[in-house]
Amino acid sequence: MSKTVPNQSIAGKFGFGQPVRRVEDTRFVTGHGCYSDDVALEGALTGYVLRSPYAAGRIVTLNVDDARDAAGVHLVMTGEELQKDNTNHLKCGTLVKQPDGSTMYEPQFPVLAVDRVYHVGQAVAFIVADSLNDAKNAAEMIEFDVEESDAAPDFCTALDAGQPKVHDAVAGNRAFEWRHGDQSASEAAFAKAAHVVELTLINNRIISNPMEPRIAIAEWDEETQKLTMTANTQGGWPLKSRLAKDFLKLPSEQVRVVTPDVGGGFGTRAFPCPEQPMVCLAARALKRPVKWVAERSENMLTDLGGRAHLSTARLALDENHKITGLDIHLRADLGAFLSDAAPFIPTGAMLKVATGVYDVPALNVLVEGVYTNTTPVDAYRGAGRPEAIYLMERLMDKAANSLGQDRVEFRRKNFIPTEAMPYTAASGTTYDDGNFNLVLDDVLTRADWAGFEARRQASAAKGLKRGIGLCYYIESTLGAPNETCAVTFMGDGKLEFTVGTQSNGQGHETAFAQLMADRLGVDIDQVRMIQGDTDRIPTGGGTGGSRSMITQSTAINGVADQIIEKAKALAAEDFECAVEDMRFEAGELSVAGTDRRTSIMGLAEKHPGALDDTATTKIRDNSYPNGCHVAEVEIDPETGQTQVVNYTIVDDFGVLLNPMLVEGQVHGGVVQGLGQALCEQVVFDEGGQLVNGSFMDYAMPRADTMPHMDFHYTEEVPCTTNDMGAKGCGEAGSIASPAAVINAMIDALKADGIAELDMPATPQAVWRALQKAA
Amino acid sequence: MYEFDYVRPTTLQEAQDLVGEDKKLLAGGQTYMPTLRQRLAMPELLIDLNAIPVLHGICEADDRISIGAMTRHAEVASDGLVRSKIPGLASMAGGIGDPAVRHRGTLGGSLANNDPSACYPAAVLALNAVVHTSKRSIEAKDFFQGLFTTALDEDEIISHVTFPSVPCAYLKFKQPASGFALAGVFACKLDDGFRLAVTGAGQEGVFRWQQAEAALNNDASFGDFKSLALEPDMIEDVHADADYRSNLVRVAAGRVVAQLREQLA
Questions:
Q1: Are residues A647 and A725 in the same domain?
Q2: Which domain, by its residues, includes A587?
Q3: Among residues A448, A600, B52, B164, which is most buried (max CB within 10 A)?
Q4: A574-578: which pairs have CB atoms within 8 A and are 24 or more residues apart?
């Protein structure tokens, strides 16, 4: 790891810009973390969900009488009861408008099935018992008969004529149609184009597989009529209001959501899930705590899916190979029901960076939402932006290759020039800044792009096909622009501060403590970050969309400034001098030109509560992290096996607070992207059964097959839309790596006549492509 | 899992006296424990073989290497005797699953289960090892009887397996999720000639590739495995189609025979 230009002043080894080691890791790696499953409430009962083994059909019998009488059973909840109570609908928060101005139809997303089942794994009954074994025994006593009907599990074909209907009320499984852009300008560009390049590809459906499965624990306090939910969320505030309003029918202050340590979010943990209302309603009914923990295979079957697009893009080019138009048509799998952000991901989120880093004069986008008889789909690390960039960067390579152009020079020719910044793209997004040639030059040098031919020949001598590819990505951060930080001085030389974000493993306790300590000039161990409790922290935007750094840092910065001003005023009173004469430096307040001084912690101790403060700040706009990843692969043509042999990264995340944590985020993201590109794939059979629902069959990327990553970054292009100059880094890796590696593979195979290759490019897929080409 | 009784005998005889219908043996538990957890088995009694000393360990006797049924894959992989006398067996054991699996999983458990994608059956069949049980001795050629099926009676316990000391090699292409063989070929040369056993690929489980053996016995430098017929029907599943599996068998055979030749040279 190295950075191109060191431009930060060094504020000590725990200061801004320093690679401070993660303070939370000692706890995590020594078994002292407190994850949701570690929360053991006295008298807690265990919940278990009976799930549908059928993908589609009418419920003929659901008889829970025997189960209710079974040993150890306290409650069996069904959809019929919830329906009566009007507590059986998980609402979608992002319904989209269709071209005719109408809002898309929203089918009921039931907590528990009523009348029909729509996907394998759909919750049918919730059993609460003394033990998991009791609950499972009872579940086996439930009589559940379904008159099965044909299923439509495949998003690539579900819109085709004659496919079974997922919802009676939705014709042709088309959940919505959504358009953006200037269709006539785009059509004109294509009509006049010297060259048109078209590409159809599948962005494969994946399971995000956080290390920690989904967990929900509810505790009801009869005296205060208050419900406390403990769950592994990405921020408890939206869940709190949903539970209060839609399920418990309580004022929102009577619901508290606590998020302990979280073992991975990836977007999947950001949205309400059916089990959360189940445990809440059961805990209130039983007046006992109720805990539900997904088993691993249950988690794989029922966690929200990710990606799953069938995409076609066309590029119009003039005679000089300048882009004149881009036409995108997506079909996006939504699963059987609308998860909270599902309609937004392939539309608004995708659109943000639909034109990538290129100057595209005319854009036309058509997105069709597709219902399938499968578990719902929602955001997964990058959420819409990886899909857009993968499509665009594959298309750029295909265009260059098919027109005989150099892939690098073709990109340079079409880059948005730095002088054009801020630049408003045809997508409507205004990129505030970016210097794409600077990053590209750097990565090409570091990856020794120019020396590739010699390496290719060396591989060929071993019988291996070598290829090199790149992806120039850009992302747009998303989520609430405002965030809050409240500081409490504890009177013992320490302070606590709250955040409205939620670490899922990213290292917030380190990064934000580092910033707070830096700003107030105190040691990092004097500051403690508080997160994950909606009672203690009234509002928060949570973590997602790479928003945490840019929003929360701005709030920390803001509150630190306020505290310093208050401290100056307070110290001026103490020292009986003018506030203008007070200086603040390295945690000390001094009177200019004298030796009179006090530490900020000393001042806080002397005036309890006087320095406590809260700031809510707002960033001016999203930020636009970008960068270029270069992948180099060796393919064994006999087996189709691919090894990523070199992987070089130059990222522009603006100004970095902690480069080590950033590098870790990039590593994880790249690995998730390589997993999607090379091995991950959700497979449903024709009947809608999940074929590879365990780690014995679902191939995750593994450490021993991952490349070394040569990570670099530039800080020469600070973000202009927040005071920190930071751009956010959480999703970048997973956005960049799929196109980088697939482009490298196509480069390796193009001499064999292979111009396209879909993900996951498994050994068999590569071998088959070579067989077909031969 | 469902409730069951559990015993941990310390002698083979005790275990033998207990085993029977619905009274199941637990070796390393790498297949059976997940099966129990998923409520896919409902034994009345679980007989844990882990505390029976006689089932553990590796020794040399009468020019053969004897490996106890409860010997872990990691022990076989790292054992000096096995590494020097049956190198392909050591490297095969070192490539099973991951370290956790290798420190729990056992030779006897793998053979008794006879998973069509497991590695051990290929080694045992190619080497014509002898499976010794609480009742008798069974030659490898008679032991494997199709998918998850062996010559073992319900109340029969494997005690140890004896292997010849010969040059041998193993190569597998892994199923990327489980690490099991998509196609694995174990090759060795016994007194009566070359033997190649294939796992992971055949619909009826492990098999000897007789055409390849004949070709090598005819010409020890034979290398054109792509030209040879591969008779058993190949497994087709979410991980690989039949034609890709047969290709992998052929490629693996070529590469593993090259390794074997290096040892023989």
A1: yes
A2: 480-618
A3: A600
A4: A574/A598, A574/A603, A574/A606
